[in-house]
Amino acid sequence: MSIFLLQVTNAAVSAAPDSVNAAVNAANQADGGLSLIDLILKGGWIMLPLFILLFVSVYIILERYLTIRKAGGQPESFMNGIRALMVKGDIQGAKLLCAQNPSPLARMVEKGLRRLGLPLTEIEASVENVGKIEIARLEKNINILGIIAGIAPMLGFVGTIIGVIKIFYAINATGDFGIAQIAGGLYTKMVTSAAGLIVGIIAHAGYHWLSILVERMVFRMENSAIEFMDILQDN
Question: What residues form the membrane-spanning segments (predicted)?
Answer without folding.
Answer: 46-62, 142-171, 191-214
